[in-house]
Amino acid sequence: MKSILFRSGLIAAAFFLLPAHRIANADGHVAHAPTFKTPKGFSLPSQPVRIMIDKSGYELQVYDAQGWYATYPVVFGNNSLADKCMEGDRCTPEGDFRIINKRVHNKWSRFLGIDYPTAQSIARFKELKRRGKVPANATPGAGVGIHGTWPNDEYMIDRYSNWTNGCIAMKNEDVQELYHYAVVGTPVQIRR
């Protein structure tokens, strides 16, 4: 195994790099597995924390006051990875959001809700509706968040199988770790 550096407080220490692999999902899209993650048992990130989600890389990256902290594999809704247009399109929204609530979830382990739709999301939705790109009776949708998987279904993350209704899904162990230190108000940037 290879090793790289990670940050634990103000000290740098080496940890193992997980082997990268390529996986094709159902529509033939080839994704690269994220190749690193902070090992368990090391210090928590120093606040403030921010989250960056890269849809094309299938990664959720966490940054704290010191810089990069961790990277987790994630999956989304629609395989197109397009920006959300309306409720029911199964697309994951793009833009700048914040975590607005957190709860233990009986189906998805943990749920960190984001403030979609924002004013920017609503403006985009209205413009799409004005141009006839979404039906006149469509709504922008809501209830988007970061959550885990059904019990014993974490293989969906390993296979990069997009299956949510527009949320960001993580392995249960990973979402429990994120839930522990991502507070309400944490910025979340989603991009493709």
Automatic annotation (TrEMBL):
CDD domains: YkuD_like
Keywords from the named record: Cell shape, Cell wall biogenesis/degradation, Peptidoglycan synthesis, Signal, Transferase
Pfam families: YkuD
Residues making up the signal peptide according to the UniProt record: 1-26
L,D-TPase catalytic domain boundaries: 49-191
InterPro entries in UniProt: LD-transpeptidase, LD_TPept_cat_dom, Transpep_catalytic_dom
Superkingdom of this protein's organism: Bacteria
Segments forming a coiled coil: none
Active site per database record: 147 (proton donor/acceptor), 167 (nucleophile)
Keyword Glycosyltransferase: no
Pathway: Cell wall biogenesis; peptidoglycan biosynthesis
Assigned protein family: Belongs to the YkuD family.
Protein name: L,D-transpeptidase family protein
Organism: Flaviaesturariibacter amylovorans
Biological classification of the source: Bacteria, Pseudomonadati, Bacteroidota, Chitinophagia, Chitinophagales
